[in-house]
Amino acid sequence: MIEPMFGDLMLSNGAEWCGGSRFAGLNPLDDTDSELVMAARCVAETRRIVARQRAHILNLKANGGATPDHELTLQAFASALAELESHTQELVEAAKRFERSKRLLS
Question: How many whole angstroms separate alpha carbon 51 and alpha carbon 43?
């Protein structure tokens, strides 16, 4: 049985579980800083999820109950974390390019 460790988080309609909007273009503040803050929050929450799943697996192993499904769930969470970190880094780089071009045009 797969036991994802989401705590109080509810997955629904895209990225809303980490406080984001469903699509990147629906930023109500329409600014780069809020996009970066939102991405950082998603990464931080996903890191917490990965850490909880790792702790859960260690606890199960100590009691002789961990299964391959638990490990697969952890791998899926870790993969999602890597993707989020990659997208966050791309946002940071895009924001830097945007700021540079904005300064050049000023």
Answer: 12
Q: Terminal CA-to-CA distance of the chain, rounded, Å? A: 58
**CA–CA separation, 24 vs 38, rounded Å?**
10
Q: Is residue 66 part of a domain?
A: yes
Give residue 101's domain range: 31-105
Count CB neighbours of 84 within 10 A: 20
Domain count, the chain: 1
**23-64 tens-digit pLDDT:** 455 555 456 678 889 999 999 999 999 999 999 999 999 998
Hunting for tokens 């503040």 — which residue is that? 29
Domain assignment present for residue 20? The answer is no
Domain assignment of residue 56, yes or no: yes
Amino acid at residue number 51: A
pLDDT digits (tens, 9 = 90+) for 57-94: 999 999 988 789 999 999 999 999 999 999 999 999 98
Closest C-alpha among 105, 102, 94 to residue 32:
94
